[in-house]
Write a structure and sequence with these properties.
This is NUDIX domain-containing protein. Belongs to the Nudix hydrolase family. One of its GO terms (molecular function) is hydrolase activity. This protein has 142 residues and is an alpha+beta fold. It has one domain: Nucleoside Triphosphate Pyrophosphohydrolase. The chain starts with a strand and ends with a strand. The protein has two helices and ten strands, in the order E-E-E-E-H-E-E-E-E-H-E-E. It is globular and about 35 Å long.
């Protein structure tokens, strides 16, 4: 069975707020724009495609900020900086997305998972000596 991958993007506005999407399924939680990879697609291509599908903007893929292995689902999640150099306005562009909004990092919305918070926190560490992380089951912050 092929290995599963997922990819997400950290997209910032000019104030340094991070773009999050609100899912229309599950807990209707807030998360980074991203999703599962498709066949013959790199992690970078997954991040670009998922951002476009979910919020209708085309981002350039920048620096890799982390790789997260989830042993419960045997999937590797890649997180990149998403460059929105043309200052496109994101909007929900998929039935999976109820809303999208830029949030200050110290005022993240609820519900959100600890996994989403960790990926955001890791992206802003000035020195990322360790890019690979193994994660446990998600804990929800309500």
């Amino acid at each position: 069975m092929p290995k599963l991958i997922g990819a997400a993007a950290i997209i910032l506005n000019s104030e340094g707020d991070v773009l999050l999407v609100k899912h229309s399924y599950g807990k209707n939680n807030w998360d980074l724009p991203g999703g599962k990879g498709e066949e013959n697609e790199s992690a970078e291509e997954t991040a670009t495609r998922e951002v476009h599908e979910e919020v209708g903007i085309v981002v350039g893929v920048g620096e890799l900020t982390g790789i997260y292995y989830d042993p419960n689902h045997d999937i590797h999640h890649f997180v990149f900086i998403g460059n929105n150099d043309n200052n496109q306005i994101p909007h929900p562009s998929s039935p999976e997305i109820l809303a999208c909004k830029f949030w200050p990092r110290d005022e993240l919305p609820r519900p959100i998972s600890d996994f989403t918070c960790k990926r955001i926190e890791d992206a802003f560490k000035p020195e990322r000596k360790q890019l690979f992380h193994t994660i446990g089951p998600r804990q929800w912050i309500e």
